[in-house]
Design goal:
- By secondary structure, this protein is an alpha/beta fold.
- It contains 13 helices and 13 strands.
- The strands form two sheets. A seven-stranded mixed β-sheet has the order 12-10-9-8-6-7-13, sandwiched between helices.
- Helix 11 links the parallel strand 9 and strand 10.
- The protein is globular.
Length: about 400
């Protein structure tokens, strides 16, 4: 009965979409509405974004996705709203999909691996709705290898985080840092790829420089994607007592704990997902060395433009792995370091970075994406598991 009612709802929505363009005033989170587009083609689409369990002010994954959706929809005259689940559960995320569809939204953007089960419970119920998911991999959708097939109304993008993690680790050592740290969020594949790539990059740079015996890396997971007093205390020990110089905070909002600790001793941070320098540097001028970025905003805008152009059928039912697309222009890639805010120096210049990217693109430098175990290294890596 639920499936019949859902299909009936989707049919009614597709026949009366323009008439039901009002926003959902009862959503659990804040919302933003835009008036419908100026053209009949654009008016046929209404875009909703659902946060995973964070907020659009997380200064990372959700915020970047939200801002990309809003910027695109504003420019195209599309109605847009975001929905925030009341809690961190599949049931709450499914409820927000149901609410968005009931409100007339027929393009839904979902950032984060946590949406895997939500996709499985809603995509086939709403065949006329287009779903765009970021960081949802086949392993998230089919953890037991049962052969799950992605429906044709769903597109998933995943990223080669190990590549930009490698760039950041390589840059850190080349810039003179010898005692590094990795503070991961939760030990999920994307976070592990960031961290293990960072380890490989730092190791490669140290070996090249002949200082592998001098480079040490601490490595731990906070087991959450936000900072708190316990994690700050752990970072205090790293910076103040162990002598860690720079921490790669690869877990969204967890960087706040590392930044609070770094600020007390003049320590440094490396951001993740997006260019986090503007936020990190509020804790101390010049605190952010660089950021290991992936093209969340670019993916969102590209996919929404393809939906408007009527080309979604070329993407539906696919999981794409996005990484390097150019060896000559680092800014064209889906994984990169920020050209404007990275603290380039004599040890690692923009030209050095461009040469590294080209070598990676050409296959001269390879990076493992294996997350089954910590990479083997010449440098010392002290893995401490979870803080809690």
């Amino acid at each position: 009965m639920k499936k019949f009612l859902a299909l009936l709802l989707a049919l009614v929505m597709s026949l009366s979409l323009v008439a039901c363009g009002g926003g959902n005033d009862a959503t659990d989170g804040e919302s933003t509405d835009q008036e419908g587009g100026d053209t009949a083609e654009n008016a046929a689409y209404q875009v909703a974004m659902i946060t995973d369990y964070g907020d659009i002010t997380d200064q990372s994954f959700n915020q970047t996705t939200y801002e990309a959706c809003k910027e695109f929809c504003d420019a195209q005259g599309l109605q847009f709203e975001y929905y925030k689940p009341a809690g961190d559960s599949t049931a709450e995320r499914v409820a927000q999909v149901d609410a968005a569809v009931a409100d007339g939204y027929n393009v839904i953007v979902m950032p984060g691996y946590a949406f895997a089960e939500t996709i499985k419970q809603t995509a086939e119920l709403y065949p006329d709705v287009t779903f765009i998911a970021l960081d949802v991999a086949q392993g998230d959708l089919d953890p037991n290898g049962e052969g799950y097939t992605l429906p044709s109304n769903v597109y998933c993008a995943v990223y080669q985080e190990e590549l930009c993690g490698y760039m950041a680790g390589y840059a850190a050592v080349k810039l003179g840092y010898k005692h590094l740290g990795v503070l991961g969020g939760m030990a999920v594949p994307a976070v592990q790829r960031f961290g293990y790539g960072f380890v490989q990059g730092a190791d490669a740079a140290a070996v090249e420089m002949g200082i592998a015996d001098q480079v040490v890396m601490e490595y731990v997971y906070g087991n959450q994607f936000y900072g708190d007093a316990d994690i700050t205390a752990y970072m205090d020990n790293w910076f103040a007592n162990l002598g860690v110089e720079v921490v790669f905070a690869s877990g969204g909002g967890i960087y706040t704990s590392a930044a609070e600790a770094a600020a007390k001793v003049g320590g440094k941070l490396i951001g993740v997902d997006v260019d986090q320098s503007a936020n990190i540097d509020t804790y101390g001028e010049g605190m952010c060395v660089t950021s290991a970025m992936k093209g969340l905003a670019e993916t969102v805008k590209h996919m929404l433009s393809e939906v408007l152009a009527g080309n979604f059928a070329n993407y539906g039912g696919k999981i794409e792995t996005l990484g390097l697309v150019s060896g000559d222009d680092p800014t064209a890639n889906y994984v990169q370091l920020p050209m404007e805010t990275t603290q380039w120096g004599d040890g690692f210049t923009q030209d050095d970075y461009k040469a590294l990217v080209k070598a990676m693109f050409d296959g001269e430098v390879t990076v493992s994406n294996d997350t089954s175990a910590m990479p083997e290294t010449t440098i010392t890596v002290n893995f401490a598991g979870n803080i809690k």
